Automatic annotation (TrEMBL):
Protein name: Cobalamin B12-binding domain protein
Molecular function per GO: cobalamin binding; isomerase activity; metal ion binding
Xref: PANTHER family: COENZYME B12-DEPENDENT MUTASE, METHYLMALONYL-COA MUTASE, MITOCHONDRIAL-RELATED
SUPFAM superfamilies associated with the record: Cobalamin (vitamin B12)-binding domain
Key words, A-Z: Cobalamin, Cobalt, Isomerase, Metal-binding
Length: 166
C-alpha cells in the first residue's frame, strides 16, 4: 500500500455523482403557465440514460409534461409515441456517436407521419463541428455534453414558446 492521495473525481464523474435534486429549477425559473408536452428519447443501442433522466427531471421541475421512452428505442417507435402523445418537442439523447444518422431518421419519420410541426432537439456526445450539420438537418437546438441544465431548459422553453406563469 502507498500513501498516495486518491485522485479527485474527473468533472464527468463529479457530474454523474450529483443527485438530480441539485439540478432543480432555480428561483428565477417560474413554472409554465400551461404545461407543454415533450418527449425525451434514447434512440439506438445506447444504454446510458442518466443524462436523459436528469434532463427529463429538470424539464418536469420547470413545468413541462415529460414523457421518457427509456433506452434502446427504435426510431419508428419514437415517432409513433411523439405523434400519439401529441408532443410539441422530441428531445433525442445520443451518446453513441450515431447522432447524425439517428437525428436524420427521426426528422424524416416525423415528416412522413405528417408531424413535422414537432420540434426536434438533440443532446449528448456531439462534436461541436456537428452542431451546424444537425441544425441543417432540421434540429432546432443542439445541446452538446456539458451544456448547463438551465440552458437546456431555457432552450426548450424558447423552442416550444412555453410561457412562464405570471
Amino acid at each position: 500500500m502507498t500513501d498516495a492521495p486518491i485522485p479527485a473525481a474527473t468533472p464527468a464523474e463529479a457530474f454523474a455523482a450529483t443527485p438530480a435534486e441539485a439540478f432543480a429549477a432555480t428561483p428565477a425559473e417560474t413554472p409554465l403557465a400551461t404545461p407543454v408536452r415533450v418527449l425525451v428519447a434514447k434512440p439506438g443501442l445506447d444504454g446510458h440514460d442518466r443524462g436523459a433522466k436528469i434532463v427529463s427531471r429538470a424539464l418536469r421541475d420547470a413545468g413541462f409534461e415529460v414523457i421518457f421512452t427509456g433506452i434502446r428505442q427504435k426510431v419508428d417507435d419514437i415517432v409513433a409515441v411523439a405523434v400519439q402523445e401529441d408532443v410539441a418537442l422530441v428531445g433525442l439523447s445520443i451518446l453513441s456517436g450515431a447522432h447524425m444518422a439517428l437525428t436524420t431518421r427521426v426528422i424524416e419519420g416525423l415528416k412522413a407521419a405528417s408531424a413535422d410541426d414537432i420540434a426536434v432537439v438533440v443532446g449528448g456526445t456531439i462534436p461541436l463541428t456537428d452542431v451546424p450539420k444537425l441544425r441543417e438537418l432540421g434540429a432546432v437546438a443542439v445541446f452538446p455534453t456539458g451544456t448547463p441544465l438551465v440552458d437546456v431548459v431555457s432552450g426548450v422553453r424558447a423552442v416550444t414558446g412555453a410561457a412562464s406563469a405570471a
